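Technical note accompanying the year-one report. For the benefit of new consortium partners, we illustrate the data format agreed upon in the data management plan: each record pairs a sequence with a structure-token string. No post-processing was applied to the example shown here.
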Amino acid sequence: MTSVITLDLDFNELGDNLEAGKFRGLNTLQALHLRGNGITKPPKEALADLRSVRVISLDYNNLTKLGRLMTDFTFTLYKLQH
């Protein structure tokens, strides 16, 4: 599964169950859709292995706090797109 470009996991009731290593090996992944999963905190550890990602959709979740690392991650993604 190393050549996946887009992964759509919208509305799968994942909650805060995305742990470190969940996306390991998806070296070509550019878009990850996690909308509507009841996520309350950024899954920073799970996203750490994503090197080629350009878009992460987290709308329709219950995020209450992004935290410093997620803000830095979002800013880096924004710079890559512009």
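Partners are asked to follow this layout when depositing records. The two ends are 28 Å apart (CA to CA).
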